[in-house]
Here is the input.
Amino acid sequence: MSTRGVRVPEGEDEPLTRETLPGAAPTPAPVGHTPGQGRFVRFPGVYRPQTDTLLLALAMRREGIGAGTDLLDLCTGTGALALHAARLGARVTAVDISRRAVASARLNTAFARLPVTVCRGDLLRALPGRTFDAVVSNPPYVPAPGFSLPRHRAGRSWDAGPDGRMILDRICDDAFTALRPGGLLLLVQSGLSRPEETVARLSAAGLDVSVADRVTIPFGPVTRGRACWLRARGLLGDRLDREELVVIRARKE
Here is the structure.
């Protein structure tokens, strides 16, 4: 694939990267693949699909996302989950606030030749009044110093304030109105950002909530790099070098 003539958003001259998840196939995967089996184009600063992406993809397949499902992918990044849903047969809208992410997702959609609508905007404010059969999201959820979200570069993909909940709480508060009757929310986050708070908020909003999946993984570079800060805040507990990822499932009855 040539990237000649493609302009990197936000005024930077770094090239696109083209990569797969660990163990991914070197060529595009067939219909019904999970993000771990395909290749994606990614502008610098856009989140690289990895374990949390794969967990959501597997949950989507298990929940029967497919033909006739009107699905929203919030914080789409490269568009990996949006493309996965489209391959499963869903009608897909994808949203991200980052220009680089939107550009990456639109390129990946074009290369895949799949009808995904990619919008730039601030979560559900990008689509006022719209409702969906399913909402999936892999939002920024890593606790980070400071009370404002980064506006540029890679930290925008994962930093979410001192408790990691600056985006999660907004999604929880808006999920009920974004879902149609019988609609489903699938959300992934770290155990460091209090999944129990997500469950409580979604329950209080009137959704039927459960923890669908839990998996423990080694610290990635970001968590490892701020482990001392996390420990000082009491967020690591007795964890030495591993964190839990959680997929939360919420249904609107």
Summary: Residues 1-16, 20-34 have pLDDT under 50 and may be disordered.
